Amino acid sequence: MGGSFRGRFPLAGRDLLSTRDLSREEILLILDTARSMERLARSRGVAGVLSRKVVAVLFLEPSTRTRLSFEAAAQRLGARVVTVAEASSSSAAKGETLVDTARMLAGYADCIVMRQGETGGARRAADAVDVPVVNAGDGAGEHPTQALLDLYTIRRELGGLDGLSVAMVGDLKYGRTVHSLAYVLLPFRPSFVFCSPGELRFPPELVSDLQSRGAPVAETDSLALALKADVVYMTRLQRERFADPAAGERLKGAYVLTRALVEAHHPEALILHPLPRVDEIAVDVDDLPTAAYFRQAQNGMYVRMAILKLILGR
Ligand code: NCD
Fold first, then answer.
1. If you measure from the C-alpha of residue 49 to the centroid of ligand 1, how many angstroms do you get, rounded to a whole number?
2. What angle do CA 138, 27, 11 make, to 5 degrees?
3. Which of 90, 272, 311, 314 has its CA 20 to 30 A from that of 164?
């Protein structure tokens, strides 16, 4: 990674690999910058602040939102973008290691945004190159930019971040977004309800770590209990990461949020989902004013504009 220099530009030249690396002040700086990026995108549409920069986008796992919102974010700020959109079209298919690929890209671009299947892979790549690396999903590890856009959405929808109860529902073992979201919330003194089937529990070592940092954590398999929280964050089964493919069939439909359930238990709960949804939110929920997942996806571009501007700007 590049050297970090603090002061007025605390994120300039830095990697973004894990939400654990961010302070409350840095998180708030990203959210405030994202708000001004939203205004910019809605008024002028584009700006030239990154017009001298080239961003490399390396996606070796499937993506729609994350890749396109990063590319749109870079282009709205005037940067040029070079992209690998699938593993089969890159030299990864010929057996090139991630570190070698990253070294190449570091010679072409000012920043690398990467998604790949190995937990910890983004950090390994970042250690090998001297341009900033942004982790856009490393296997079942983390997805820090998603967590930041989740947080931005919570703040926009609820008006604040402090002291919220946040329920995370579904595949909490392999879902990387929930791992990053728990840590990005920590400085705001949340309480957590982790709702999953027993075999897809939030990793126990992370639960202990969150508790040791002062966050109350309740674990349950009851969706009705989870629905009492201020924020209900639904996730899909990460079937592609299951060791036992039959588990996917067995656990299918374990949690399905319906309009009737929301209305019966907590009509005010803010409902989020990183998308793609499979079957865990019924379409009759979509029209509820508290169903924020499509607004959440749109916020992704503003937050990624902010991240690129803060990392690549002066
Ligand atoms: C998430 C991911 O890739 O981890 N998607 C996303 O980036 N919005 C969630 C998922 O795939 O379930």
1. 29
2. 75
3. 311
Distance CA 294, CA 49 (A): 28
How distant, in Å, are the alpha carbons of 10, 13, 101 from that of 85? 30, 24, 14
172 in ligand 1 pocket by Cβ < 6 Å? no
24-43 helix and 293-312 helix, angle to the nearest 10 degrees:
110
108: its two tokens: 């072409």
d(CA 91, CA 83): 13
Tokens describing residue 150: 């989740």
In 23-78 the beta strands, taken as DSSP E runs, fall at 54-59
Ligand 1 contact via 277 beta carbon (within 6 Å)? no
Domains in the chain, CATH or no CATH each: 19-141+299-312 (3.40.50.1370), 144-297 (3.40.50.1370)
Local confidence pLDDT in tens for the 314 residues of the chain: 544 445 678 999 999 999 999 999 999 999 999 999 999 999 999 999 999 999 999 999 999 999 999 999 999 999 999 999 988 888 888 889 999 999 999 999 999 999 999 999 999 999 999 999 999 999 999 999 999 999 999 999 999 999 999 999 999 999 999 999 999 999 999 999 999 999 999 999 999 999 999 999 999 999 999 999 999 999 999 999 998 889 999 999 999 999 999 999 999 999 999 999 999 999 999 999 999 999 999 999 999 999 999 999 87
Residue 92 backbone dihedrals phi, psi, to 5 degrees: -55, -35
Measured at the alpha carbon of residue 283, what is the angle toward residues 280 and 289, in degrees to the nearest 5? 105
Report whether residue 180 contacts ligand 1, using a CB cutoff of 6 Å.
no
Tokens read off for 59: 């996606």
Q: Which residues pair with 119 in a beta bridge?
A: none
Amino acid at 256: V
Q: Collapse the DSSP code of 226 into the 3-class scheme (helix H, G, I; strand E, B; otherwise coil) and give the result.
A: helix
Return the amino acid letter for 131. Answer: V
